[in-house]
Amino acid sequence: MNIYLHTEIVSRELDSKLLLATLAAARGHHVIVSDLEGIEKGLRKGVLPPGIFHTKSLTPGNIKIARHQTMIENGSIITSIDEEGCLDQNGYDKFAKIRYSDKSIEQSSAVFGWGSEDVEALKRIYQKHSSKIFKTGSPRADLWKSFFSTYWGTPRGIPQRPFLLVPSKISYANNMKPFHEIIKTNKLGGYFERDPDKMKYMFGALSENYRKMAAFIEAIKYLAKYNNGYDIVLRPHPVENVEAWKIHFEDISNVHVIREGSLTPWINKAFAVMHNSCTSALEATVSKKPVVTYIPFQQEYSPELPNTLGFKVKSLEELSSKINNIFDTIQSGDKIDLTEKIPEIVEKKLYFDKNELAAEKMVKVWESLANESLSKSCNWAKFQWFLKLMKFRGIVGRVMRSLSSNKLEQKKENYKFPSLDKEEICKKIKILENILKIDKNLECKLLSERTVLIKKS
Questions:
Q1: What pairs with residue 79 in β-bridges?
Q2: 184 shares a domain with 319
Q3: Structurally, how many domains does the chain consist of?
Q4: Which of 46, 79, 116, 411 sits in a 20 to 30 Å window from 88, CA-based?
Q5: Is 235 helix (H, G, I), strand (E, B) or coil?
Q6: By the 8 A CB rule, do 303 and 280 touch?
Q7: Does 187 share its domain with 302?
């Protein structure tokens, strides 16, 4: 069977897509992990045969609805797990009504859920499609388990000293896109129609984001000065401007601004995680890592759920004291007093089956949807040349636009999907094979800078 795994944000999604691809390829399927453009154009031009198109959301915007309809008419089927997951909000009903619709679920053949909360809400709100909705859990959460600890290893750029991890979530005030472009994207996606209060919320969140960013700059500088011998790693959200953060800490030697790679190995290697309103608090909680929730002022527009987790502090002095205490306790070889049981609020969001990975459940659902059309052979060399032609046309297009405007048009950096490294991807596949005890020989081939093919040799 042909399976096409759409990846939007590499640092967030790539590793879970490689887990899915490894399991599916070991069972004889041909799997493409790629950005949207390569898959969508390949299917539309007939260079890729029909297959399962697994996407990162079923948001019911007109463009996405039309895209999925074209794929369906050409013989492909649609499945999805929402990569946002609504992990930072209490409840799921509003999210379900904004990120899904009867039409978008009708177009899909399977919708996978992170846990009981999202699955129950989707089945209740979209009752006529309930048979398509599966509580599998998320492959991203699979990789949080200690079972995969050897997969992650040590991230590049890690400080020599023990470090505090500070994941930021300032997604409006420090976005790579100007705020008016974020507004435009939401407008084109139909978000303001489905949620009339969203515009007002976004402006309120923007204002609060600036206050939060200023508070975190102050807090990190304070911790950098008054600590018992640790470094600080600030990890910006995937959509944030890294350089903007670096400006504030460029003269502070024990503060490192690093966004490369997945968040998980940084959580694994940190002695503690400090955050505000960040879903990293859920991952750290599941991973039994000390979480410090810093709430410097009363917040109206920040997600509430993550801020209920961990040790909650409000002042700089309290923050420094708590983190130093955690650091000293760990350095002395003692254990931090953390609850053994995952909080109920997190258990509703995340489903873990002790006997089977979420990724395994998803592959089995895909296999239950199999038909002859989805297993047609593909000329992978032809698809590779098609991707090269796409890239060439993109270059020519930029040159022509530059000539017509008398201004050199620079290629925009794809901060969500930087170029893939073949050696690194193949190494990760090999590690997954070993962890999962897969005795099949899998082939890993980079077809373009953003497309990888994984199948049996």
A1: 54, 110
A2: yes
A3: 2
A4: 79
A5: strand
A6: no
A7: yes
Backbone angles phi, psi at 273, to 5 degrees: -125, 130
Q: What is the pTM of this model?
A: 0.94
DSSP string covering 380-448, please?
HHHHHHHHHHHHHHHHHHHHHHHHHHTSPPPPPP-SSSPPP-HHHHHHHHHHHHHHTT--S-EEEEEEE
The verdict on 46 and 88 lying in the same domain is yes
CATH number at residue 298: 3.40.50.2000
Nearest to 361 by CA among 110, 116, 42: 110
The boundaries of the domain holding residue 163 are 155-339
- Name the nearest CA neighbour of 39 among 420, 386, 424: 386
Question: How far is C-alpha 115 from the chain's CA centre?
Answer: 16
d(CA 43, CA 36): 11
User: What's CA 37's distance to the chain center, in Å?
Assistant: 18
Q: How confident is the model at residue 209 (pLDDT cuts 50, 70, 90)?
A: very high
CA distances for 223 relative to 9, 164, 314, 355, angstroms:
31, 10, 14, 42
Looking at the structure, tell me whether residues 130 and 221 fall in a common domain: no
Contact status, residue 316 vs residue 292, Cβ threshold 8 Å: no
Q: What pLDDT score was predicted for residue 261?
A: 87
Beta bridge partners of 5: 33, 54
| pLDDT tens for each residue of 78-87 | 999 999 999 9
Which stretches of 67-188 are assigned E, i.e. beta strand? 77-81, 108-113, 133-135, 163-167
Task: Note whether residue 345 is domain-resident.
Answer: no
What CATH number corresponds to the domain at position 441? Answer: 3.40.50
- What angle in degrees, to the nearest 10, is found between the helix axes of 358-368 and 10-26? 60
| Residues 107-146: tens digit of each pLDDT | 999 999 999 999 999 999 999 999 999 999 999 999 999 9
* Spatial distance between the Cα atoms of 352 and 71, rounded to a whole number of angstroms: 32
Give the tokens for residue 384: 């590779």
Q: What is the mean pLDDT of the chain?
A: 94
Long-range interactions of 432-437: CB distance < 8 A, separation 24+: 432/18, 432/19, 432/22, 432/151, 433/22, 433/26, 435/147, 435/148, 435/150, 435/151, 436/22, 436/23, 436/26
Q: What Rg, from alpha-carbon coordinates, does the chain have?
A: 22
| Residue 251 and residue 186 in one domain | yes
In a shared domain, residues 318 and 356:
no
Q: State whether 271 and 362 are in the same domain.
A: no
Does residue 23 sit within a domain? yes
